[in-house]
């Protein structure tokens, strides 16, 4: 939304300011005889939500990770945001070779679907990492995607994206997610993400176990709270 500010004494003096939130199409008088004309860019600016990309990284398409991802997406969409779930397991993305030919900000020598991920992340407002816990870390498919951030390291840092973590494990010990949580928090710190929350699904060994538990509702509430 833009606010057009003009002074009565000088009708040609017009200034614009962004991000002022008023009811649509209001014409009102302010101090010093100034007139504010609100030009509406959308029907309800307050409801224009974020563009959210969920990196769904479980090779089990209808598994417990998908249950949390779908619940989160439902909550976020009800909150006025747009959500795209990207199944990274179906993409052709090779592991990073560490050649650094990209210089941490440039073309990767490997021409694959990583370019698709790059475009999506550099045009969204929030990224959600959805992964099962495999040997106390993220899935290999998600780790491959994260490693390939190398080629657009500076760009993704400058985006200051919001982020969240959705994860599930069969295990239910209190230390189950310690390593993955530490890794995620390190990524948040390094890439300048703004962490919006984590759903750590203990004892989610099967989709039926997951759906019978509290974690889908937690994922929904996380999405709805944004």
Notes on the protein architecture:
There is one protein chain. The protein has 226 residues and is an alpha/beta fold. The chain folds into 2 domains: 2-39, no CATH class; 49-224, Flavodoxin domain (Rossmann fold, 3-Layer(aba) Sandwich). Helix content is 30%, strand content 26%. The chain has 7 helices and 9 strands. The protein has helices at 64-78, 114-121, 140-147, 153-159, 178-191, 207-212, 215-224, and strands at residues 2-7, 10-18, 27-29, 34-39, 51-56, 82-87, 126-132, 162-168, 194-201. It has a 5-stranded parallel sheet with strand order 6-5-7-8-9, with helices on both faces. Strand 8, helix 5 (178-191) and strand 9 form a beta-alpha-beta unit. It starts with a strand and ends with a helix. The relative contact order is 0.16. Residues 1-46 have low confidence and may be disordered.
Give a short account of the largest sheet. Answer: 5 strands, parallel
Quantity of strands, as a count: 9
**Which blocks of ≥5 consecutive residues have pLDDT under 50?**
1-46
Our measurement of the CA-to-CA distance between the termini, rounded to an integer number of angstroms, reads 21 Å
* CATH level-1 class of the largest domain: Alpha Beta
Q: Please identify, by name, the CATH architecture of the largest domain.
A: 3-Layer(aba) Sandwich
β-strand percent reads 25-35%
Helix content: 25-40%
Mean model confidence by pLDDT: 85
Q: Which H/E pattern describes the elements?
A: EEEEEHEHEHHEHEHH
Form type: globular
| Gyration radius over CA | 22 Å
Query: What's the oligomerization state?
Result: single chain
What is the CATH H-level superfamily of the largest domain? Flavodoxin domain
What is the fold-level CATH name, i.e. the topology of the largest domain? Rossmann fold
Across the major sheet, the strand order is: 6-5-7-8-9
* Count of all domains: 2
């Amino acid at each position: 939304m833009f606010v057009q500010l003009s002074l009565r004494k000088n009708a040609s003096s017009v200034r614009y300011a962004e991000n002022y939130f008023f009811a649509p199409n209001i014409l009102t008088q302010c101090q010093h005889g100034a007139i504010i004309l609100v030009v509406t860019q959308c029907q309800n600016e307050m409801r224009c939500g974020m563009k959210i990309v969920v990196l769904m990284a479980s090779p089990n398409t209808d598994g417990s990770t998908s249950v949390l991802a779908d619940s989160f997406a439902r909550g976020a969409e009800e909150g006025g945001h747009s959500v795209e779930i990207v199944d990274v397991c179906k993409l052709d993305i090779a592991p990073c070779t560490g050649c650094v030919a990209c210089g941490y900000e440039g073309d990767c020598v490997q021409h694959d679907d990583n370019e698709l991920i790059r475009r999506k992340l550099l045009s969204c407002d929030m990224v959600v990492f959805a992964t099962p816990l495999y040997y106390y870390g993220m899935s290999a498919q998600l780790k491959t995607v994260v490693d390939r951030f190398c080629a657009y390291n500076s760009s993704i840092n400058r985006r200051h994206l919001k982020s969240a973590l959705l994860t599930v494990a069969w295990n239910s010990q209190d230390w189950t997610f310690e390593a993955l949580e530490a890794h995620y928090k390190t990524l948040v710190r390094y890439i300048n993400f703004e962490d919006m929350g984590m759903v750590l699904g203990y004892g989610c060994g099967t989709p039926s176990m997951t759906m019978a538990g509290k974690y889908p509702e937690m994922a929904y509430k996380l999405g709805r709270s944004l």
